[in-house]
Amino acid sequence: MISIKNVRKVFPSKQGQLTAVDDVTLEIKEGEIFGVIGYSGAGKSTLIRMLNGLELPTKGTVTVASREISKIKGSELRKARQEISMIFQHFNLLWSRSVSENIAFPLEIAGVKGPQRKKRVAELIKLVGLEGKENAYPSQLSGGQKQRVGIARALANNPKVLLCDEATSALDPQTTDSILDLLVDINQRLGLTIVLITHEMHVIRKICHRVAVMESGKVVEIGSVLDVFRNPQQPITKRFVQQVTEPEDTKETAEHLLEQYDSGQIVQLTFIGDSAEQPVITNLIRHSNVNVNILQGKISQTQSGSYGTLFIHIDGDDQEVDKAVDFIRSQQVGVEVVSHG
Ligand SMILES: Nc1ncnc2c1ncn2[C@@H]1O[C@H](COP(=O)(O)OP(=O)(O)OP(=O)(O)O)[C@@H](O)[C@H]1O
Ligand SMILES: [Mg+2]
């Protein structure tokens, strides 16, 4: 559906040339929710803006739905943009227009006639859950409701691709989740391909199928969300994964425990897919002659299964502790000994 080949974007700046996107090559499949994560300045917005021709690559090609976006101009590009919509962090609504009028706007531009336009607006209002707010103005809406208007407007002309540039970054966690649920719903119902960029791993975890990690203009890691969570390769990826899997005070808890106990081992377990549901700890206690303290744990859902980490302190006879660790290893659970007591 989307093919980015050897794309580079260089901006002229006072200090010389600034390479915002540096030789990126990626394929995004039809119907996929594809995430791009990176810190500020990594080049995420520049990359996504090349997907709808808001920026032109300095080098390389961008193809979306069989159209070479990096080559077309004028009316052909405007037509292509009806198939590649975008939503933004700050919504970009028209403040003097009501909810209905905002959603009708792209339909007016596309030349959709009155009665048909009205019908389509009503459908979209229902799709994004804004019934009753048709005549409200953006200033009378919450952040989440404003983004729903943004989404409805983006979907008005039945696009094939929806681009989301930090679409939930201005929202509180609960509202973020409701907007992410809406995006998943739209992806499943309409088969829409979604490309989203974010600096929050929570967003990737919750809705993306695959993720690319960007650093200094380059894609440094790419893979299915579950694989990247299970086995992050780059230091930056590990930091992002820790954002959602490891509570911040885990280290302190472990250190505190190490001070308290001078025996046993502290072990980090990683659960993926089905094993997250299995009562590994119960079995461990049944099979071994050790004491188990649960320090901290977290299980998260991804689009392709659950993922979780659990920190435990295993105490007892040295030999028994080793046996216990071996037992966990045999349970298709990732095991890492954090430190010795
Ligand atoms: N129009 C422009 N002219 C000059 N430099 C630019 C332009 N747009 C972006 N840049 C530079 O390109 C680099 C990448 O910027 P970009 O906006 O793509 O990053 P980002 O990953 O989206 O960051 P953020 O998370 O802060 O939105 C930055 O160093 C930025 O200053
Ligand atoms: Mg940006």
What key attributes describe this structure?
single chain, 341 residues, alpha/beta, Rossmann fold, Alpha-Beta Plaits, six-stranded mixed β-sheet, four-stranded antiparallel β-sheet, 12 helices, 38% helix, binds adenosine-5'-triphosphate
Cα end-to-end separation: 53 Å
CATH architecture tag of the largest domain: 3-Layer(aba) Sandwich
- How would the global form be characterised? elongated
Rg over CA atoms:
24 Å
Count of individual helical segments: 12
Number of domains: 2
Distinct ligands, ions and cofactors found in the model: adenosine-5'-triphosphate, magnesium ion
Topology summary:
Blueprint: E1 2-13, E2 16-28, E3 33-37, H1 44-51, E4 59-64, E5 67-68, H2 74-83, E6 84-88, H3 99-109, H4 114-127, H5 143-155, E7 161-165, H6 173-190, E8 193-198, H7 201-207, E9 210-215, E10 218-224, H8 225-230, H9 235-245, H10 250-260, E11 265-272, H11 280-287, E12 291-302, E13 305-315, H12 318-329, E14 334-340
Parallel strand pairs: 3-8, 3-9, 6-7, 7-8
Antiparallel strand pairs: 1-2, 1-4, 4-5, 9-10, 11-13, 11-14, 12-13
Helix pairs in contact: 3-4, 3-5, 4-5, 5-6
Magnesium ion is lined by residues 44-45.
